Amino acid sequence: MTADAAPAPMAPVPYRVTGRRAETADTVTLTLEPVGVSIAEPLPGQFTMMYAFGIGEVPISVSRIGPGRVREQTVRAVGAVTRAVCATKPGQVVGLRGPFGVGWGLESARGRDLVIAAGGIGMAPLRPVVLRALSEREAFGRITVLIGARTPADLLFTDELDVWRARGARVEVTVDRPAPGWSGHVGLITALVGSVDADPVRAAAFVCGPEVMMRVTAEALIGLGMPAVDVRVSLERNMRCGLGWCGHCQLGPLLICRDGPVVPYGHAVPLMTVREL
Amino acid sequence: MNTLELTGLGPLYDALRRAGYTVIGPTVRDDAIVLAELDSIDHLPYGWGVRLAPGGYRLRRRDDGAAFAHAAGPQSWKPFLHRPRVKVWEADRTDDGFEVKDAAPEPGRLALLGVRPCDLRAIAIQDRVLTGGRHVDPSYAARRDGAFIVAVNCTEPGETCFCVSMGTGPQAGPGYDLSLTELTGEDSLRYVVDVGTEAGARVMGDIQAGPAEPAVVDRARAEVTAAADRMGREMPALGLRDLMAGSLEAERWDEVAERCLSCGNCTMVCPTCFCTRVTDTTDLTGDHAERWQLWDSCFDLDYSHLHGGDVRSSPKSRYRQWLTHKLGTWHDQFGSSGCVGCGRCIVWCPVGIDLTVEVAALRAETAQDGAG
Predict the structure, then answer these.
(1) Which residues bind [2Fe-2S] cluster (chain A) (predicted)?
(2) I want to staple B169 with a disulfide (CB 3.0 to 4.6 A). Which of A234, B41, B58, B117 is the partner?
(3) Interval B131-167: pLDDT, tens
(4) pLDDT at position A6
(5) Within an 8 Å CB–CB cutoff, is residue A252 touching chain B?
C-alpha cells in the first residue's frame, strides 16, 4: 500500500445503499456497495465507523461480508446518527471507515464445534460467523446457534433461520415475552444452553448481547465444561475514532476499538463486574 | 557527545530563527509563566520563580536573573503539538454522495525552547499514543516532525514536583535536539549545552560556541544532581500499576469524589492526557460538512455515553478512571506510565486534590485490607 493509496484514517469512504430491510421496529439492515474505492474486507466480528453526512459517525457491526464488495450492516436507531442511518433510502450514500477491531477469530476455531449465542441486536456481528461456518460446513464440527430476544418482534434475520437449519446448524430461539402465535421457547437464553450440541472441551463459543446476557451465558457454557478461554464475548463502549487516539472506548486496560471488541471471557469478566468501570 | 558553552541565549535564538523556526518558550503573562511565541529572547522570564501548592500558583521574584528557575506552568507543550482544535477534513455533497477533502495539517516548524525533562518524557509518551500505533494522527505527526526541542535540565524543582519518583528528571533523557543547563553567576548567565541530534549540531554550528570547560560542566551536572534531592513531592513508583489494578473497589474513591468537582482541569493541564472527541458539523445549506477533533476529558459526563446511558455517571468513577488510567492501565495500553511527575494536576486542581496523597491513601487502605 503506497502513501498515496492509503485513505486518510479519518476520511469516510462513500458507500451506496443498495438495499434496506426493516428487521424490527427500530432496526434495519442496509446493503452497501462502494461508490468508488472500497474499504478492506472485514473479518467476522469487526465493525466500521458509519457516517451520516453532516450528522455524525457511529460504530456499527458488519452483519454480512460479500458477495464481492457488497456488505450488510445492521443498525438500531437509538440516537441522532443511528436514526439518520436507519432512515437512509436505497440510492443514498453513507460513509464507512475501517474495518476496525479484532474479530471473533473464527479461523482459530476450525475443526471444532461452534456455539453461537446472541441476545437482541447481538445477532448482527455473529451473522457473518454463522454464514461463513455454514459456507465451509465441513471445516467445522457441530454448529449450535442460540438466540434470545425480548419479544418475537425483536428477532433479527428471522427468514434465514430455517435456511441455517437446513444447512446443518441447530438453531434455538427464545423470547422473554411471547406474543400471540408464538410457539417457541420463553425465558432466558441460559435455559437453551442445555440444548447445545457440542463437545464442551473441543468447542468454541461466540457470545454477543447485553453485558448481563453475555455474563450469564458465558457462565452457563463454562458450567457445561467449556474452558473460559474458549468463550469469546464482544464488548461495547463509546467510540469516536476507531483508531486508538480518542480514548473514549477504554475499559480498564483495553481500548475496545483496538484490543476488542471481541475478547476472551476470562479477560472480560473482571472488567464487567466492576460498576462504572 | 559535544558539550558546549554559551553565555546568554541570544545567539541560539537567532540561529533558530535563521533556521526557519518559530520559537516558543516561557514568558510572563497574566501573572503566570506561560508558553508562547517569543518575539525576542529578552521575553524569557528572567528573574522570575514560582511558588506552587495544591490549588495554588504564584510568581515570585528571584535574587538572580535565571530564565529557567521556575517549575511547570499552567500549560505543557501539548497545545503546540497536539492541537486543542483540529479541522480533520471538509466534505461537499456531490452526485455520487459526497467528496471528502483532507484538511492540510497546520504547518508548524516550531522550536520548543525550555522543555523540562518531565515534559520531554511527556512528548515521548504522546508520540507513542498518537503515532506509535497502527494509525498515525496526521496533524500531530506533522507538528511533531517539524519540532526542534531545546530541553532545559531542571535545577529548581517546585513544591509539587516528583519527576524523580517517575524516573523522568531532573536530567533530560533522550529526545532533545539540544539540552541546556543554566548556571547563574554574579552578573551573567551561562549555559552548558549538550547536543543530542544532527539537527542540534547544525544549529550549534551556526553559533560561535566554544567547548565547555570541565569545571563548568562539573558544576552544571552537580546542580542537576542536587535538584533531585529537592523534589517537593514523592510518589513511589514501585508497585503502582498493581496498586491501581487492585484498588478498583477502594473506599478512598468515595472520599475523593466528595472533593472532586469533575471540572477536568487536571486533564487539560496534564502533558500526556490525549483524549479527543470527533465532532461532525454542517453549514446551514447542509451541503458542506466538516469534521473537527477537539480535546476532550474523561471527567466529562458525555465522554462515556452509550445508548443505554453514561457508563461513568458518578464523579467517583470518573476520578477513578483518570487516576487508574494514568498510573496503571496506561502500561497495558501504551507500555509506560502516563504520569511524568510534573505536578500540574495538583497545582491547577481548584480544590487542591493531590494525586500523591491519593495514591498514599490507596496504598494505606490496601495495606490495611491485606493485614485485616
Answers:
(1) 241, 246, 249, 257
(2) B117
(3) 999 999 999 999 999 999 999 999 999 999 999 999 9
(4) 56
(5) yes
Domain that holds residue A86: 13-100
- Asked whether residue A86 is marked as a ligand-binding residue, the answer is no
B209-212: which pairs have CB atoms within 8 A and are 24 or more residues apart? Answer: B209/B4, B209/B5, B209/B6, B209/B11, B210/B4, B210/B5, B211/B2, B211/B3, B211/B4, B211/B5, B212/B3, B212/B4, B212/B5
Chain B CB within 8 Å of residue A79 CB: yes
Amino acid identity for residue A88 in this structure = T
Residue A1: per-residue pLDDT: 35
pLDDT in tens, B38-86: 999 999 999 999 999 999 999 999 999 999 999 999 999 999 999 999 9
Together in a domain, A83 and A203: no
Residue A2 confidence (pLDDT): 36
Q: Determine, for residues B129 and A240 on separate chains, whether the beta-carbon distance falls below 8 Å.
A: no
Confidence class of residue B250 from pLDDT cuts 50, 70 and 90? very high
For residue B289, which residues of chain A lie inside 8 Å, CB to CB?
A: 53-54
Q: For chain B, say whether A258 makes contact (Cβ under 8 Å).
A: yes
B102 and A243: CB-CB below 8 Å? Answer: no
Last residue of one domain, picked from the residues A76, A100, A124 = A100
The dihedral built from the CA positions of residue A224, A228, A232 and A236, taken in this order, carries a sign that is: positive
Instruction: Based on the fold, state whether residues A223 and A241 are members of the same structural domain.
Output: yes
Nearest CA in chain B to A10: B88
* DSSP H/E element including B22: strand B22-29
Same domain, A45 and A127: no
**Residue A4 falls within a domain, yes or no?**
no
pTM here? Answer: 0.95
A37 and A117 in one domain? no
Q: Rounding to the nearest 10 degrees, give the CA dihedral for residues B131, B136, B139, B140.
A: -10
- A-interface mutation test, from B86, B100, B324, B329, most A Cβ less than 10 A away: B100
Q: Are B87 and B291 in contact (CB under 8 A)?
A: yes
Considering CB atoms only, which of A82, A240, A276 is closest to B278? Answer: A240
Percent of chain A with pLDDT over 90: 97
Chain B, residues 119-178, CB within 8 A of chain A, namely 129-130, 133-138
A150 and A223 in a common domain:
yes
CB contacts under 8 A, A 13-42 vs B, are: 14, 16, 35-36
**End-of-domain residue from the set A40, A65, A100:** A100
CA distance B78 to chain A (A): 15
Q: What is the CATH number of the domain that holds A179?
A: 3.40.50.80
Taking contacts as CB-CB distances below 8 angstroms, the residues of chain A near B96 are: 14, 35-36, 93
Chain B residues with beta carbon closer than 8 angstroms to that of A11? 89, 100, 102
Among the partner-chain residues B93, B296, B329, the one whose CB lies closest to the CB of A252 is B329
Position of cell 457511529?
A58
Domain count, chain A: 2
> ipTM for the complex?
0.93
